[in-house]
Give the backbone structure.
Amino acid sequence: MKTIIIGCGRVGSDLAQTLSRAGHPVTVVDNDPAAFERLGPAFKGQTVVGVGFDREVLIRAGIEKADALAAVTTSDEANLITARLARQVFRVPRVAARVYEPRKAEIYQRLGVQTISPTVIGAHRLAELLSYAPLESAASLGDGQVDVVNVDIPSGFVGRRVADLSAPGEFQVVAITRNGRTFLPIAGATFLESDIVHVVAQSAAVGHLKAMLS
């Protein structure tokens, strides 16, 4: 997967190193040549000096053959302009932009640009840690609207059906870990003592899940 990363700050450099170590060809673009020092001597990708939303810079970076582009500079506007240019002009299949301002993220999501908002994700994660201690968060999906949580099944649910721990449109069990083995439960399966239950839940419904478990 040939990937172009716009911005070689902490996130951009780490993303570039991660993809490069996985064997993907990576090109990093930044208007400050000194920023490439963050990549370290082991980085095997390419670097291009220039502004990420400059058409000629993108062409030099190989955007015409790119499979993915991530715009992660410190400027929301630059990231969004670059992402739309990559998506609409160069037809890059996978495009994502980091956006700090949640309102901008929502607008550009509607325009077809996949955005990641650290502000929203961080707020959801902090609220989760402060409010729902009995539930262990495994992952957040999207901008934090959906959570994957792990639950040690309480004694009150032992022997009950998996379907009993669900609320349509709010949360549902997707897997169970039992005696060190994780599996997808079949219809009619029941919980056993010491089960670890993996639940997908809307963030707004985690309180309802907690209440049901208690």
